[in-house]
Batch of 4 targets.
Target 1
Amino acid sequence: MTTTAMSAARPPAPSPLIETAIQLGSDNSVSLLQFLGAAHRRGRLLPLLREAVVEELIRQQADLLGLSVSDARLQQAADVFRRRRGLVTAAKTHEWLASQRLTVADWQQLLEEEMLEDQVREHLFARLAREEFAAHPEFYERCTLRMVVVAREDLAQELLLQIIEEDRDFATLAEEHSLHASRSRGGLVESILVTELPGEIRDAVCGEEVGRVIGPVSLSEGFCLVRVETRAAAVADRATLEAIELRMFEEWIQEQVSAAGVTFPLLDVLT
């Protein structure tokens, strides 16, 4: 083999930047592999790798659809970003970028990635979201609930009897017994779309009258009593349609990830 061929086949020597992730004074450092290994052991690396997969799949889909972000829309997004963070001057914006160790180009790429994601979602699912709403408006009513989740069905039955026969206060029972995060609020779950509820609860409350206690409903975490406090008719407003789009988009992403046959060779090096 000639010298030229050997030179072409040999990978370039790692730069100091690639070898060293953190420099501690003049004598000590943390290598990039050490840093990545620590992130992996703490469960932080795999989520980042999965995010990178999703970003790449979205970019590929945007290319297939011929989508791009115009300069005008990019400027609009930059203005919104700055207002939300109080970066009212160019100097404050550059100061913030410096504090994050980001360049203007990094920032623009971040904005563009976020906007491309929105465009892909809207292109694929805006029409389907409207059709889904029209077909199943009952799933997109907005309601307020109270719920009690307990570990055993017999306890759920006992609490139901206390509510019906002893006129016990639902909120008090939730505070005393519920395993759900809403316990401190007396079981109150405010202004939620029916379709955002767990499937078992969604099916139980669909069409039920306000004020009636439903259950026990079997859940993966136990048994639930539910009472619909308020119910508002479904409205095809922007927030509701975006919620439908987002659910469809997340399901699509999962399908794309599964079909892509993703592997993470980096993790093999670290384990």
Target 2
Amino acid sequence: MIYVISGIKGGSGKSKIATNLTIELAKQGHDILLIDADDQATASYFMAFRNETKQEEVGYTSIQLANKAVRNQTLRLKKKYDHLIIDTGGRDTVSQRAAISVADIYLIPFAPRSLDIWTLEKVVDILEEMTAINPTFKAFSFINKADFQGTDNQEVEKFLKEAANLNFLPVSIGNRKAFANTAAQGLGVTEFKPVDKKAIAEFMGLLSYLTNIDHLITRPWYFRNQFLKTERHVSIKAIRQTLCVRD
């Protein structure tokens, strides 16, 4: 599976999602390649921090690519890995479009801010244009850096649900310090101490959707109902497993 974590607005937490997704899939025993296609190279800095922290136990491979090389090298390397995760910058660039051209899943986090939601129309335009090149990819949005009070989350959710060609995932990842603290050490949110149970539960909710993506694509309403029934169980189980490992 080729996951592209992207968007056209900086600061929505794309690299946070890409690096945590990489780490969690690797912990499941998959061979993962993380491709940093962002000019800011956040995922590469993360890898450097992780090399210092984990040394011989990094758990995945990371490379940097740009422009047309994103497409060409991804196609060349995809048979060597179970999953490829491409982290692109928050702009409409050659690198981003090259990534979408080979994507299976295009994942777009939105922060509940007016400047982020104003980019939605442009995102939809890009999806329509790229479908002509890659007709099989599926695009999903969700709320990242969610507020803990107020109505902004609900208002953004309404806009995302109405967007054409963009499937809304009913998961919300809060704007928690745990993600920033873990990134500074090159760690995933499930690896960090002290444990932030809420941050872990939220990310595991997103992971639960993504690791059952076939059901999500073919039977979205059935899967959504099943997820809502089991969300609390999945999250608590994930937390307990993390606590056991860390202890």
Target 3
Amino acid sequence: MIQTTVRPNVPLVLIGHGSPDEQARREAAALIELLRREARTPVYCGYLEFQQPDARSAIAQAAASGAAELSVVSLVLLPGAHWSRDVPRLLAEVACDFPQLRFRYAQPLVQQAELQELARVRVRDALAAGAQWRPHEGELWVVARGSRRREVDRALAQLAEHLAADFGFAGYGRAYVSVAEPTLEQVLPCLLARRAVILPLLAFGGVLVKRIERMVCSVPGNADRLLLARHLGPHPLLAAAIMRAAVSAPLLSR
């Protein structure tokens, strides 16, 4: 049972990135089903790319339900361009058609304590499953999709620092799959010499997680020196983070 609930009679609208990958789609559907069981309010979901319904349609559908207010949560975990630009633009466009409706827009999920706890679970599981070394003998690296926004880099580095301190890792860092530097491909040779747990900070499996897996597995001499943690996935803690974010979401000004 998830302990956090959203505001009664305030529909919850999730905006995901979307993926062409079937695993990612299944995991997104599982998370939505979990939220629909626990949130005690209507739950809608739309996507920015690849999947239907598209984000605009999902927001409009929720807006047409007769509710006075909507809570909107981005499933893109970090404060990149999708969170800071694309979703607010969509909300502003839909608001023109529903002038009486109030919108609440949640802060990035990376800020929620439940998401940070889920990251700890993934790191703990990786260490328990395969480590022949202790955290103080290696480093923790958190890997994300990639963004040129400094807020993303700052949030990712802060999460890596906190997790490393919790487990007693000798060092920590952040890397990206693409767009921003350092990329995971750039840092992997150095990490092999130092040992590391690599945590993909991604909500769902799919294209990016598989790319990370290929990069880590292709490093010669890896053995147990590089431990790849599981991505977050449709876990109750992720659902709780979403509901917590929805509860605390501020009203958008018009």
Target 4
Amino acid sequence: MQKEQLKTMKITHLAVCVALIATSQLHAGASVADSSKNKPSTPDEAFAYLKAGNERFASGVGIRRDLLAEARETSGGQKPFAAIVSCLDSRTSSELIFDQGLGDVFNARLAGNVVDDDVLGSLEFATKAAGAKLIAVVGHSSCGAVIGAIDDVKLGHLTGLLERIKPAVESASTKNKESCTSKNPEFVSEVVERNVKLQMKQLTEKSPILRELAANGSIKIVGGVHDLATGKVRFLADGN
């Protein structure tokens, strides 16, 4: 009986040691979320904050978060520092790829990261009413919506959505027509980037509110492309 108790104690002790080692390694690789820290207060700070979050994600050292605690803290109000327009794709969740918590960023997600009147209205609220300092339009590699636009897919309401991407396809199709197909990864990548720029352009062309906020420096508008394989977002504004 004593031998079995001793064996059980040894196993328990070993399990505790393993847990402590794992915890120490986790602490070494990632910081803990501190809800007391102030969020970015300027557009440039917001951009730097967002880029730093993606660098953490792409490096595998994201901040450890107590999401339930964050839910309680933000239940009475929110103050996101950025609004992100991204794709519906299941692999492009903004909170994840930018290593943000609950209440940190607004999300507007439509296939192909397109901008329509509803997205414009949402962004006007996010910035003018709620105080977000940054709008980021983020496309991603091998975007299915972009491929659908290149292939001229017709499918219910999706047909109209893909029409919003067609100008990017057309502007990229000035080279050898034989290479301008969805089978050409380089062409798809070019259209993805052109589509990000196209959707960014819609923001200030179609919304006087966003145009004024951008002009007076109250907000910054940036674009980027998320690499699904590496997790890194290459921002078009600075070429990184």
